[in-house]
């Protein structure tokens, strides 16, 4: 999943810095300093101070609306953070991947061992590190708890997809981000998929619900239709 989102975020950070708003390091990572700088800029320019660079903010900040592919859209920063982390892998056996443990520390989640399923932790990190005002569900490590997050929506780019695992009326689940779909499956960008942050195909009939952050404007997009290729369905994401 080739991404130009890092370059897009750097462009936003450069523009903020030039105008006297501190976005933190100009590194292409959408962190809380960048979000806060966007909010201050928006408030100073009569825009909705939601910390999201949508079309209106883009025009005032950059002088034009950013022409980006839907998957690179900076107005879904939690999804861009997820894409940036593709390839992060847990340590099999003794020891832990420091990045995964650090996500928990920064989000205030009690998590000390990456042998414990971390799909919910991954989603919590991506949301909390880019949307400072967004409330996480109680016990975000529990995948099905994300059914109480934000607001329901149609499956669309960047939306949070909650799936059942094991059996539909059980307690096990999986959670990740919509990256696309084919006629049989959703393509899900998530953590703890093959012990890593990756994109897998999950059968449509396993979807419980799609959710959208309450503090972010809904970016209604067309379906992202992808080829199924030769990949098999993911059947156990723990």
UniProtKB/TrEMBL annotation:
Gene3D superfamilies in the record: PGBD-like superfamily/PGBD
Pfam family, one: PG_binding_1
InterPro entries in UniProt: CHP02594 (IPR013423), Peptidoglycan-bd-like (IPR002477), PGBD-like_sf (IPR036365), PGBDSf (IPR036366)
Annotated ranges, domain Peptidoglycan binding-like: 7-58
Domain of life, source organism: Bacteria
Protein name: TIGR02594 family protein
Organism: Qipengyuania mesophila
